[in-house]
Specification:
- This protein is of the alpha/beta class and 481 residues long.
- The chain is built from 15 helices and 24 strands.
- α4 packs across α6, α5 runs parallel beside α6 and α11 crosses α12.
Amino acid sequence: MKRMIFTIKKICKLNCFLIFILLIGSIIFVPENTYANTDSEKYYNMHLENKFKKGAYFSQVFDKPIDQVTDFKDLDFIIYAFAEPTDTGYINPLKKENQAKDLITKAHANGVACFISFGGKYSYYDFCEIGKDENKTNFFTENVVDLCKKYGFDGVDIDWESPIPSDTEACNRLFKSLSTACKENKLYFTAALPGTYSPTEAVAELAGGFSDQALSRLDWVHLMTYSMEKLNSPLEFSENSINYWNKVRKIPKNKIILGVPFMAMPSYKNYDWIVAQDIKYALLNKAPGTKDYPLESNYDGYNRIYEKTKIALRDAGGIFSWTINMDSQTKYNLTKRIGDTVRDAQKIGLNRFTKQISIFLDNNLLNYNINTGYPYYDANNRTLVPIRATAEAAGLKVTWNQETFTATAEKNGTLIKIPLNKNQITINGETKTIDTNAVSYNGRIYIPIRAAFEGLGYKNITWNRISNTIYVDNDMTGESK
């Protein structure tokens, strides 16, 4: 009996020791497929869908260290591109796993949500095959969720881009499965949609497979309003695409995120490369080819990014870039330009900011405020600007004659006189009739911008209806517009 009791005690001690070893081992040796700690629920509960969002795609193609790409200060979300699916629903391993982990860690450290995009340029067939088969759809959905949990991604983005009408059923099945799984796991669910040339209809083969049912399952959509052949991303492309997806397809404005390119067409050169050739190109939207790269570059420069952010603030729910790796780290950083523009809008109020007339003089934005007065359109639909603030920005010497009620401006030997309430302007002694007049408004003198600057020798005064922006310069090529 004593021997039996002793044996039992030894077995108990041995079992306790084995349990202790197993516990220690479970702490020290983490299985490779163990899920990473994730704050996805934290970011999901931030309800990003309800705010104006600033985002960017981050391409795994580039090797530049993340710290040299972004400091995350002007982002609400960033999307790692791409994870590549196969036609079976299996997802290939990430090509740069450590890069993805680093991006997630640094994004979260700065309070920025990090998504993973599935697909890309060559995944159209794979999504079609997955969506056609329920078993493949379920297998792919499980793999998507597992990948997000493993690395700590906060959302799922589908870059199918262009399902055609015959793909509608497959798209419906896939989006339903993913939407359900994302909600259950506190993950955002988004997709990239093609831009459209027309405000009333889309090219069927580019968008016909996205049914209203499928689109309703998304938290928001990313409009790819770029790569429009040679022109790349004109303002009209942005306007028409927003109007189509909002007014025709009924996607709410707050769910539409406007895309801006950080690359050029047809040269396919990155914005940072273009600016490195000559810093002046940062303020333009077109650059000539070089000896080694003869194709011209059409792109969104520093000022057009301001215009597009203004459009997005008025007509959409956010703005994103493709891709942030292509941004310039000079003072003409486009990501910061977006952030600064949003902050400016918040200071004076969104409604006032999006309705105000923006004026660029020699590609520099003129700053008006409640103290200086704001530009406005008169009864003749002509733009009047407060003379003092405008003159100071233009380097003009301005005087006011209280007896004759006449404003005088002088620059580089040119003297112009603009009398109050008279449809005329005098340039170096020669009087001309103009189609509107200077006025006194709210205690300030306002002058017609076109007459004044043309009188000073500016050759190019262009108004852009879409962004409510005026450019004043001597660039006869129109490249700055």
